[in-house]
Amino acid sequence: MNYYKLGDTIRACFGTADDTGAAADADAPPTAVALEQGTPLAYAPVVTNEAVGLYEVACVASTANGFEAGKEYTVYVVATVGGITGRGGLMSFSITATNVDDVPTVGEINTELVSEHGDGYWNASEVPSAALVAATVWASIIESGYDAAEILRLLSAIAVGDATGMEGPDVEYFGLDGVTTRVTGTITDETRDATIVDLED
Question: What span, in angstroms and rounded, lies between the C-alpha atoms of 161 and 176?
């Protein structure tokens, strides 16, 4: 299914031939019929003879011609060659209220913001880089004064880092380098008392 914006002109071509298969014009100008979800419209798309046995159909999908956004349409043609009349589907499409051309660019958004809020408002040229955003998130305090990077080192040490004294009472958890002591603690009577030692990179 193709999608077009309300008001667009949709074009397609079809050919006619005689009983030998050679290109030949229709006995009379062919006609085109537009259907709105199976119901014929009063509007008839324009059919133009472009060359011998070649016709173009131009369908103007406007409100004035009975088209509506959100509806599906089909166009078929009727032509008579050598006294024999034939019909064939030519195009099917759906009509939308907007399309990608209506999406504002960054420059247009910036112009609108400056227009509404003045030159001191956010400017598209000042959008922070992905690296800056990542660094800011990485340095954000998560809990009890520890930032995201420190919390990740802590979790890594406890989850997958080397450890000693797991049977208690004295436990020591190491960083992923296997050398840096991240956490020490004691385990007694099913109670763990942990102390954070070093969460620096």
Answer: 5
